[in-house]
Amino acid sequence: MIYFTALFAIVRRELLRFVGQRSRFLSALVRPLIWLVVFAAGFRAALGLSIMPPYQTYITYEVYIVPGLCGMIQLFNGMQSSLSLVYDREMGSMRLLLTSPLPRWWLLLSKIFAGVFVSLLQVYAFLGIAALFGITFPPIGYVFALPVLVCSGLMLGALGLLLSSTIKQLENFAGVMNFVIFPMFFLSTALYPLWKMAEGSPLLRDICAYNPFTHAIELIRFALYGQFNGMALIWVVTSFVVFMIASLWGYNPAKTMTNRKTG
Amino acid sequence: MSKYALSVCDLSYSYATKNALNNVSFDIPTGSFCALLGPNGAGKSTLFSVLTGLVRSPDGAVSVLGHDLASYGRIARKNIGVVFQQPTLDLDVSVRENLLYFAALHGISRRRAKPRITDALDRLSMGERADEKLRNLNGGHRRRMEIARALVHEPSILLLDEPTVGLDHETRQSITQYVHQLCDDGITILWATHLVDEIYPADQMVLLHHGQVLETGQVSDVVGTNDLAHWFSQKTVGA
């Protein structure tokens, strides 16, 4: 029970912070909407999409990129959480968390859960706005998407946690944008399907295929049509476990192997 | 019940090539106020990081109320309250919300935490400011809140790492006095400082310099008839 007391408190705190930062909520929505309204309008004519699972008919480009934009929201949210972890560490509040008597893995997992919860609010708000633009999915898809978004959010949150454990200063975080967020997003199926990428470069296609973010998006894409993509789930869960273990190692108090008795 | 609330034995810790703690050993009797006196860079904050489990030392042992910190870290941390040098509370959340959050990190539900928070704030004469955002409080009040926060889970040991840094003389005195009084409730205090006017003759003291313990014992016994400020500078300047 005390585990859940801590979990709810961490989620509540993250939610209070999120509510207090209206600009964060707005930017989380504006970013994918620009892609949906502006980018997709321009690329609609340039990118012809053939029928492929989970689609059973030709679709417009706007429909294609919505799952990718859901993933984008979670990707940015994961990185935002990681940024706040680095900030917390610099400001000292991370110390509070880590001196709690609860196990460190649970506290860090709770932190990720809190980020996922916030990202779910953002994704469903985005899906609601997309519906206003006429981009809708089967009703069951919105239900199926929930557990899937939790999985993808956990994976991206764990990646953010891993990054925060390796970043020493807040200033270094700008590099994350260039070396993590952009490559992860553009080298995925968020904006174009794999077969389209293969036409341009088989190597890039292979890189996309090994990108965990690609599988998170495909998991979301299938779920939005009430379908299940087992392979994508395996990729996402495996990536989550790997990122989580690595980040726990990063936050391990015994990790500082510079400790040496010299005297 | 153990005679010593906190025992540190042969503790060493290094950052890369810098030796921050070197065979540090001392004991703090239960219910006493112990000043961890040392100039800047003596290793006080590093010692606090080890005592709170933030970092782990490969050498030496720490015992909290008879529980080994390495083997029973959770039990040990449950009994420790800590006020770090850096502020740890969220400025954009109310005092009460901050304390509720911290209580939850110790597994204390909101229902159980609320009376404890009211009590802790009242004792620091801060009850009427409980619903204010921390950002609206001055430095002295924020430090009081940090102390209230560290007491919410009713710890047996309170660690304070230079808690009066940056505060005016009057506020420093008032906080120092309040923390001394906590010993009457059986709480053991470890107070890191480099300001000798925060230490009373009846206090216990550990003098730390260059990561080594130079002196330990009751202040009046260790210093004798010397002036504490003079004695401290003699021991540490140029040593």
TrEMBL record, chain A:
Looking at the record, the residues that make up the ABC transmembrane type-2 domain are: 23-254
Pfam families reported for this sequence: ABC2_membrane
Alphabetic keyword roster: Cell membrane, Membrane, Transmembrane, Transmembrane helix, Transport
Spell out the PROSITE patterns in the cross-references.
ABC_TM2
Taxonomically, the superkingdom here is Bacteria
Instruction: List the transmembrane segments.
Output: 33-52, 64-87, 108-134, 140-163, 175-195, 232-251
**InterPro entries documented for this protein:** ABC2_TM, ABC2_TM_bact-type, ABC_2_transport, Alc_ABC_transptr_permease, T7SS_ABC-Transporter
Give GO cellular component annotations, separated by semicolons. ATP-binding cassette (ABC) transporter complex
| Membrane topology field | Multi-pass membrane protein
The places in or outside the cell where this protein is found are: Cell inner membrane; Membrane
Q: Which GO terms describe its molecular function?
A: ABC-type transporter activity
Q: Which PANTHER family match?
A: TRANSPORT PERMEASE PROTEIN, TRANSPORT PERMEASE YVFS-RELATED
| Family designation | Belongs to the ABC-2 integral membrane protein family.
What name does the UniProt record give this protein?
A: Transport permease protein
From TrEMBL, chain B:
Matching entries from Pfam families are given as: ABC_tran
Q: Where is the ABC transporter domain?
A: 6-235
Q: Which UniProt keywords apply?
A: ATP-binding, Nodulation, Nucleotide-binding, Transport
- Matching SMART domains, A to Z? AAA
| Record bears the keyword Repeat | no
Return the InterPro entries for the record: AAA+_ATPase, ABC_transporter-like_ATP-bd, ABC_transporter_ATP-binding, ABC_transprt_ATP-bd_su_PQQ, P-loop_NTPase
Which GO terms label this protein's molecular function in UniProt?
ATP binding; ATP hydrolysis activity
What domain of life does the native source organism fall in? Bacteria
Q: Which family does it belong to?
A: Belongs to the ABC transporter superfamily.
| Designated name of the protein | ABC transporter ATP-binding protein
| Organism from which the protein derives | Paramylibacter kogurei
